[in-house]
Amino acid sequence: MITRGKKLTETFFIAVAFLLAFLPVMLVPSGQAWAQTATPALNLNVKSAILVEAKTGKILYKYNENQPFAPASMTKMMTEYLLHEAIKNKKVTWDQKVTADEYAAFLGKPGGSSVLLALGEQHTVRELYEAMAIYSANDATYLIAKTVGGSEADFVKMMNKKAKEFGMTQTYFATATGFPLKDLGQFAPPSDRGDNVMSARDAAILAKELVTTYPELLETTKIPHKMFRQGTPHPLKMDNWNWMVPTLVKQYPGADGLKTGHTDDAGYCFTGTAERNGIRVISVVMGTNSFLSRFTETAKLFDYGFSNYKMVPLLAKGNPVPGGEKATVSKGTDKEVELVTGQDLVYPVRNGEEKAYKPKAVVKEATAPIKQGQALGTVKLVGANGQADEFLRPVDEQKAGGTLVAKNDVDEAGWLRLTFRAIIGFIGGLFGSLGGMIKGLF
């Protein structure tokens, strides 16, 4: 026979066992638990990795993405960005001639990634750029840095300043090439924070800025072969180190960039990008263990992205968003202005979740005058399970849903109208207060 006390004891131990079993789940915030279960098991053999949709910066996969590691020649992505920016600002031209100095000749020695530049050799900026983007040539990269920044040391300052602007919080650039400081001898630029480091997330941020601001870059990075010193007694065939571009060993449909990297400290790294069926993804793998494995691991990420996500039109341009139909206007002829979406909202959505996303308007008060089409708010998307998606940076999340814009102009009100409006408001407020006082008495 079981006594009442024994039953209570058994019940107590069952309750404790149940509590211990579910305590870890109870202690994890619901959003975090959902995010963890949403991460697929891709069995990547890497130190860190990330996969994002290029237009919005929405993260599709991540692993140890915030840990900084040596990036090797992936550093050159920032050099590429700053060169394009200098070209755009007319500080440098594509046909500008550059002469190789002693440092370039040092980097041009056989044994590293170079186009074997000799002291005094001249080439155009475009030729050096192609050598950098296709062949990862350190000697060509250094000369570009010197041309844009005046010296590599000053160019490195530009690199770190731009990284800060981009929100790359786990990055430090010491050289323009990614070449380790310890191997540069007398040519090593001064550094007070050690050697180059970058996280996978930061590499993805940089790649996103690069391919969305200067997409013409991809016309160069997808070239499988190119001749350097074409038509001279000493031509050099440059085979693209990115073996995922068309015709090369690990070719992947839609792959057209972006930058490989390898040093003893970094292992084999790769920032890749590919586009299929209207969706472009950016991937980063760091610390793989062989030349080919970085492409094999990248292919896993690409396969996952393209098989599970697509770009879906969620909102058409010129439509109101519930809860954000109007914005309050101060000092205007009208007190409100109607708001509509400023562009078509096309968004990366996981298969089967096409109807899960709900738009949420974020509207700010405006001051007249207001012009038609002026941005007065944003759209935030809430996805499956009521969770917001994760993005590379807060600014990417703010831009991902698009803008809410004024449907029409609102002129600034004259002083007489504003004065009269203020008087009416004051009187209304006064009587409202008196009414409240009277109501309080009874």
TrEMBL record:
<dbReference type="Pfam" id="PF00768">
    <property type="entry name" value="Peptidase_S11"/>
</dbReference>
<dbReference type="GO" id="GO:0006508">
    <property type="term" value="P:proteolysis"/>
</dbReference>
<comment type="function">
    <text>Removes C-terminal D-alanyl residues from sugar-peptide cell wall precursors.</text>
</comment>
<dbReference type="InterPro" id="IPR018044">
    <property type="entry name" value="Peptidase_S11"/>
</dbReference>
<comment type="pathway">
    <text>Cell wall biogenesis; peptidoglycan biosynthesis.</text>
</comment>
<protein>
    <recommendedName>
        <fullName>serine-type D-Ala-D-Ala carboxypeptidase</fullName>
        <ecNumber>3.4.16.4</ecNumber>
    </recommendedName>
</protein>
<dbReference type="Pfam" id="PF07943">
    <property type="entry name" value="PBP5_C"/>
</dbReference>
<keyword id="KW-0378">Hydrolase</keyword>
<dbReference type="InterPro" id="IPR012338">
    <property type="entry name" value="Beta-lactam/transpept-like"/>
</dbReference>
<keyword id="KW-0961">Cell wall biogenesis/degradation</keyword>
<dbReference type="InterPro" id="IPR037167">
    <property type="entry name" value="Peptidase_S11_C_sf"/>
</dbReference>
<keyword id="KW-0732">Signal</keyword>
<keyword id="KW-0133">Cell shape</keyword>
<dbReference type="InterPro" id="IPR001967">
    <property type="entry name" value="Peptidase_S11_N"/>
</dbReference>
<dbReference type="GO" id="GO:0009002">
    <property type="term" value="F:serine-type D-Ala-D-Ala carboxypeptidase activity"/>
</dbReference>
<dbReference type="GO" id="GO:0071555">
    <property type="term" value="P:cell wall organization"/>
</dbReference>
<dbReference type="InterPro" id="IPR015956">
    <property type="entry name" value="Peniciliin-bd_prot_C_sf"/>
</dbReference>
<keyword id="KW-0645">Protease</keyword>
<comment type="similarity">
    <text>Belongs to the peptidase S11 family.</text>
</comment>
<dbReference type="InterPro" id="IPR012907">
    <property type="entry name" value="Peptidase_S11_C"/>
</dbReference>
<dbReference type="GO" id="GO:0008360">
    <property type="term" value="P:regulation of cell shape"/>
</dbReference>
<keyword id="KW-0573">Peptidoglycan synthesis</keyword>
<keyword id="KW-0121">Carboxypeptidase</keyword>
<dbReference type="GO" id="GO:0009252">
    <property type="term" value="P:peptidoglycan biosynthetic process"/>
</dbReference>
